[in-house]
Specification:
This protein has 307 residues and is of the alpha/beta class. The protein is built from 13 helices and 12 strands. Bound molecules: alpha-D-ribofuranose and calcium ion.
């Protein structure tokens, strides 16, 4: 049984790894990509998503999403982390295809209606498009089987500020709306994604086994790993977005805490995700642990078998 999946993405180096992984995963039916600002601008994200889909041999719709956050002014893209064009050292790609005319939020609503109760939406960028879909269709939240969010943290603090994880920080109001929507939300935050790491030798193994796509990922990884070296985190890089894709299909590799999540939307801690907030909110599943070796090895083995 395969999981029907749409990825909402701001590619982005770890987004690229996630998209290649999903494209080749035998247990995933990737139905489309929707694009959002964050690591890059929405136009760059759309161009990169088209390029990644074509390079992975996919003929799937790519729908362009929101260009700016719901309320706050846009932050500058995280070019330091992902490179000037979002794919590390790679120059601006020139995909042959075009995005569909339908905006991302409309595409998400339509696909959730078409695949009622069966569609997983995996958001690996800011949640602006997901929030727009929820606002556009009151049934969207319930039509989705699950909305898996790479973002936030329960006890692991932040990465773009000491309080906030990047995807939430880029649009805290959207995240607050999604977490409070009553959808079946699964939050894959820094508590687990910081533990799922690829080393330079992981990327060289993948490139050796899968020279074409693995070689591309290895090239992108040099920039990503260099960023992690500059912040002195650890040798290698966090596989934030690919970990969220694994959680879409193999949730039993993770440990979850059932809790409501609110989001700080102003002040020094803006973008902070808060578990057990005062007040009445629907509970979601927030990842607090993972079988790290199982997730790492699954990513490694499947990326090594990329076509
Ligand atoms: O904090 C990590 C997240 O922010 C990942 O989705 C990464 O691609 C960036 O978007
Ligand atoms: Ca991302």
């Amino acid at each position: 049984m395969t999981t029907k999946l749409i990825i909402d993405t701001d590619p982005g180096i770890d987004d690229a790894i996630a998209i290649f992984y999903a494209a080749a995963a035998p247990d995933i039916d990737l139905l489309g990509l929707t694009t959002v600002f964050g690591n890059v601008t929405t136009d760059q994200a759309t161009r990169n998503a088209l390029y990644l889909a074509e390079t992975a041999g996919l003929t799937i719709p790519v729908a362009r999403g929101a260009h700016k956050p719901m309320v706050i002014p846009p932050h500058k893209p995280s070019l330091r982390v992902h490179g000037d064009e979002g794919l590390g050292p790679l120059p601006a790609p020139a995909p042959t295809g075009q995005a569909i005319d339908q905006p991302a939020a409309e595409f998400l609503v339509e696909m959730a209606q078409k695949h009622k109760g069966e569609l997983t939406v995996c958001a690996i960028g800011p949640l602006t498009n997901i929030a727009a879909a929820i606002q556009k269709d009151p049934y969207f939240a319930k039509n989705c089987a699950q909305i898996v969010v790479m973002g936030g943290s329960v006890d692991a603090g932040g990465n773009i500020t000491r309080h906030a994880e990047a995807n939430i920080y880029h649009d805290p109001h959207a995240a607050q709306l999604v977490f409070a929507s009553g959808a079946n939300v699964v939050m894959i935050g820094l508590d687990v994604t910081h533990k799922i790491r690829f080393s330079p030798s992981d990327f060289s193994n993948v490139a050796w086994e899968a020279p074409r796509l693995g070689g591309l990922l290895q090239e992108m990884s040099y920039h990503y790993i260099k960023f992690y070296e500059t912040v002195g985190k650890f040798d290698g890089c966090s596989m934030h977005d690919p970990t969220a894709i694994v959680a879409c299909v193999q949730p039993d590799a993770f440990a979850f805490r059932r809790t409501a999540i609110d989001v700080v939307t102003q002040g020094e801690a803006i973008g902070k995700t808060v578990a057990e907030p005062p007040g009445v909110y629907p509970a979601i599943n927030a990842a607090v642990g993972a079988d790290v070796d199982r997730v790492h090895d699954l990513l490694h083995d499947r990326l090594a078998r990329l076509p």
